[in-house]
Amino acid sequence: DTVSTKGGIKVKSDDGSFVGEFGGRLMLDAAVFDNDTADNASGTEFRRLRLHSKGKIHGLGYKIEVDFADGDTVTKDAYLQMAVAGGKLTIGQFKQYFTMENLTSSRYTTFMERSYLTSFSPSYQVGVGYWGHYNALGFGISAFNAYQDEDADGGSGTTEGVGGSARVIFSPSLSEDVTLHVGGSALVTGGIEGRNRVRVRAAGHLSDASRPDIVNINTGERSESTIFALEFASIAGPLSVQAEYLGGTFETETVEQDVAAFYATTSYFLTGESRPFNAKTGKFGRVKPRKPHGAYEIAARYDYVENDSNDFEVESVTLGLNWYMNPQVRFMLNYIAADVAEGSDEPNAVTARMQFDF
Amino acid sequence: DTVSTKGGIKVKSDDGSFVGEFGGRLMLDAAVFDNDTADNASGTEFRRLRLHSKGKIHGLGYKIEVDFADGDTVTKDAYLQMAVAGGKLTIGQFKQYFTMENLTSSRYTTFMERSYLTSFSPSYQVGVGYWGHYNALGFGISAFNAYQDEDADGGSGTTEGVGGSARVIFSPSLSEDVTLHVGGSALVTGGIEGRNRVRVRAAGHLSDASRPDIVNINTGERSESTIFALEFASIAGPLSVQAEYLGGTFETETVEQDVAAFYATTSYFLTGESRPFNAKTGKFGRVKPRKPHGAYEIAARYDYVENDSNDFEVESVTLGLNWYMNPQVRFMLNYIAADVAEGSDEPNAVTARMQFDF
Amino acid sequence: DTVSTKGGIKVKSDDGSFVGEFGGRLMLDAAVFDNDTADNASGTEFRRLRLHSKGKIHGLGYKIEVDFADGDTVTKDAYLQMAVAGGKLTIGQFKQYFTMENLTSSRYTTFMERSYLTSFSPSYQVGVGYWGHYNALGFGISAFNAYQDEDADGGSGTTEGVGGSARVIFSPSLSEDVTLHVGGSALVTGGIEGRNRVRVRAAGHLSDASRPDIVNINTGERSESTIFALEFASIAGPLSVQAEYLGGTFETETVEQDVAAFYATTSYFLTGESRPFNAKTGKFGRVKPRKPHGAYEIAARYDYVENDSNDFEVESVTLGLNWYMNPQVRFMLNYIAADVAEGSDEPNAVTARMQFDF
After folding, report:
1. Measured distance CA(C10)–CA(B1) in Å, rounded
2. Does the beta carbon of A239 lie under 8 angstroms from any beta carbon of chain B?
3. Least CA distance to B125: which residue of chain C?
4. How many Å lie between the alpha carbon of C159 and the closest alpha carbon of chain A?
């Protein structure tokens, strides 16, 4: 059996049917706020501190990943995976197939935080899913035990909520340098017990005081939701654009709330790199700097979410500068100007991140 | 130094006096209840999600294992082990020597949950123990700092309770295919502070609502207990039977409660495998399927516990079907029909598990 | 890439620019109290149960260490480290450069617990620091996001406190057998929100009931502190002495509290070993027994802390016996006679530890 390291540990059996891999990721953030009405505290936090074990057992893939940031223990991926009919069948806890930015690893997102739209994603849930692809076409479908708490770690065994998600993507390579990607997702949940709540941090993950509810159904009834989303990305050399739109409804027998969200991002590599995109899974990947001093990327995003039933909205503009010191180490600087409820709270923030994974 | 993998990572020094091993186990459960009077919630949970490090340091064995299921952090094994007089001296936190099913790894039990009887086991406690064996005879003795909370993680440093346990086994090999095993255990604890409580989940680990107390002494006095147990197992090719009986007393200066428990299990491998049994330690071991499509096992259990002083009892019948996909991956299906307090709550459950270890 | 083990796992790439290492440490304690007025409970606890991953990523050092003792999850080291101008620049969470015993690893301290003086150390904090050395001279400086809670795990992102620390050391080697070390540290914090509290466990870590406040400012104002410390150590063959003195002030706009602390330790190896000392970093290191049966060390400490403003003091005498079974396994026995507030609580304790690391 052979061993290798990129900072972690990887062992592979000679016939390839067993693999053992140990690794992790660290993201350490700092934020300074120019507050408006809400009193966000400047400071630092571990945004992610994860260790994982993954590999192969008798040819079956597995992964276990636990996040220890800020003194909590939160299970992320924890699944077994089998090759079935050219695709992958996954059983356990994993990110459900829904929207593009959600499925792109936090190690590879352009900004420190994902857009408001991703707050509607079920993220890690216990279920069964299948992802397949055929030429430029990819598709996934999953059924899961649905949790209603946006901070939940999954797997708590006390909910009878269920959900299903599906995603279809089309990612043709138009030329050697140009990639196009379009896709659509659907999410249905039902039987959700307790509070059904979706909220966003308006000005980065440390903006705990500027964290309004978009949806907050707490009538004691069981609730359900139906959400549709569209995604678009295009990469032409050092330039890329990505955008997603989402619309949906949360309801109980007595309440109905309609929501929508949208973001558009553009990014440009000053040092000439191109954002890698995996056409088979519809996710952005790891940037590899061309030069020893690393890669520099500038980016801008417009981010929007609304609850149409409440006439409530949050929007922001984010500017970003990323330095990819090497393929595994990245420093990020974000400026965020946010607007909660049309001027009732307008926090600005400068946030920074040190990130490495292995 | 050489490295190998079975999904985890193992490194061994050339002279064998150092070993470093990293691995884990995942058990993901689902349950659907047909409730009677108690309202058990159907759903899913990580039953176990453990990572461990073990090996040898200058020839001394060690193990550290932590369970992260459901957002908790619970230390399991955490000990140093030395070879003494042909046996093993263990210092640290480990499963005390008491009863057979308790000591058999959760990876190798026939049913998803151990029997009610095992709820009386001290399980992982901080102490010192010795296990030795001579031909078909094995014996263990241990002294420990005793905890009264059935959910405790051990090592919390706030109890002055103490305990001692002992186990003697006789496991002759009657022929190439036939193993017989008999044994007895004793457990004594004293000076237990706070509530002294033993409770069981009547219909599987997700049956939180059908979770009656068998013992619940909460008089403010210190309490003590004395428990004796007998164990029996026999394996004849694909067929095995296993049974244990336990009787004991919990008491304070003002209260006395007498308890008893019993279970009997039989299992049969449709695909011809035989349950491995380690005669030196008196524990069942890892099933290795003979065929590429895996091994299939069917099993049944009668399970009973009573508090004679309260005239309170819980009993259940469990039917099981196990598919050993390979030696490290197992899928389990259990049907449980339980009866709490002679008809006052009769929950039925269908439960399923996906399990792998590496 | 090559692999090795000392109980953990270490992989090194052929060019040395990548290293992946997995290891941990366990310290299991027991204490028996002869209580005076406070009611300390005798018992056991995991004092430290840590797993870590460290190594190199494209030539940059990193470390992630998490402590799981007693069911908590506490991040310790979590940083990225770069070689700059002959020294080391560290970004992330790490022990700030302040006093000698604080910076010496818990694996290498003479007694089970550090002295009262070390309670004033900021310990692990999120910040940026630089450590350099030139011949017998070493120096460090760091700036950090300061936490006020003595039990905090750092990185919680909710404080706006800031701090700076600096340390200068001079550690000439006087002869082959004789090392001298002197040094000084300074610590300044400001903008500390909430309670600013420093307390000590008078008679070891299990003496939860004999745990008086030295400083406890809780006026609702922001507080600040300024502390200076001096350190001294000398090693002459099997004999070593080490001592530190500290004095400082905690204040808000309305309150001022002056504190001081001092300890002196002497240790002698009955088996002739000498305590290793790293002159470049000013820390004690790993003892390596000369003989197969291990090394034996006896030690004594006088320990003192006072709040001059309150006229409150805690002092103790500790006697210690250490058996280094091998370089990675150590057993410790400490006798502590403590005096809180001049006779108002005089607990005595016998404490023991089993320790190993890999």
Report:
1. 10
2. no
3. C44
4. 6
The Cα–Cα gap between C96 and C182 comes to 18
Each residue of A331-354: pLDDT tens digit? 999 999 999 999 999 999 999 999
Q: Which domain holds residue B68?
A: 2-357
| B7 at A interface, C-beta within 8 A | yes
Distance between CA B78 and CA C356 in Å, rounded? Answer: 11
pLDDT digits (tens, 9 = 90+) for A194-215: 888 999 999 999 999 999 999 9
Contact with chain C for residue A292, Cβ under 8 A = no
Q: Across residues B116-132, what is the average pLDDT? A: 96
C249 to C196, C224, C227: CA distances (angstroms): 12, 8, 6
- Which sign does the torsion angle of CA C263, C266, C267, C273 carry? positive
pLDDT band (50, 70, 90) for residue B149: low
Mean of all residue pLDDT scores within chain B: 94
Q: What's the token pair of residue B270?
A: 């449709």
**Contact call for B45 and A92, based on CB within 8 A:** no
Nearest to B80 among C3, C44, C354 (CB): C354
Q: Which of C256, C244, C205, C222 is nearest to C98 (CA)?
A: C244
B234 touches C at CB < 8 Å: no
Tell me which of C2, C58, C90, C96 to substitute to probe the interface with A (most A C-beta atoms closer than 10 Å): C58
Domains in chain B: how many in total? 1
Q: Could you tell me if residue A65 is inside a domain?
A: no
C158 has a pLDDT exceeding 90: no
Site of tokens 């004793």 = B186
Chains that touch B (3 or more CB pairs under 8 A): A, C
- In one-letter notation, the amino acid at residue C130 is Y
DSSP secondary structure letters along B256-319:
EEEEEEEEEEEEEETT-----EETTTTEE-----SSTT-EEEEEEEEEEEEETTTTEEEEEEEE
Contact call for C8 and B53, based on CB within 8 A: yes
Q: Map tokens 């899928």 to a residue.
A: B331
What is the residue-wise DSSP string for B37-102? SS-PPPEEEEEEEEEEEEEEETTEEEEEEEE-GGG--EEEEEEEEEEETTEEEEEEEEE-S--HHH
CB C276 within 8 A of CB C317: no
SS3 string of chain A?
CEEECCCCEEEECCCCCCEEEEEEEEEEEEEEEECCCCCCCCEEEEEEEEEEEEEEECCEEEEEEEECHHHCCEEEEEEEEEEECCEEEEEEEEECCCCHHHHCCCCCCCCCCCCHHHHHCCCEEEEEEEEEEECCEEEEEEEEECCCCCCCCCCECCCCCEEEEEEEEECCECCCCEEEEEEEEEEEEEEECCCEEEECCCCCCCCCCCCCEEEEECCCCCEEEEEEEEEEEEEECCEEEEEEEEEEEEECCCCEEEEEEEEEEEEEECCCCCCCEECCCCEECCCCCCCCCCEEEEEEEEEEEEECCCCEEEEEEEEEEEEEEECCEEEEEEEEEEEECCCCECCEEEEEEEEEEC
**Whether pLDDT at A298 is above 50:** yes
What pLDDT band is residue B269 in, cutting at 50, 70 and 90? very high
Contact between A62 and A44 under an 8 Å Cβ cutoff? The reply is no
Q: Side-chain half-sphere of C5: how many Cα atoms within 13 Å?
A: 29
Domain containing residue A122: CATH number: 2.40.160.10
Provide the 3-class DSSP secondary structure of residue C116: helix
Specify the pairing of strand A256-269 against strand A295-307.
antiparallel
Cβ within 8 Å, pair B70-A1: no
State residue C170's pLDDT score: 97
Going by C-alpha positions, the residue among A240, A151, A202, A205 that lies closest to residue A352 is A205
User: In this structure, what token pair is assigned to residue C328?
Assistant: 């990675």
pLDDT of residue C164: 97
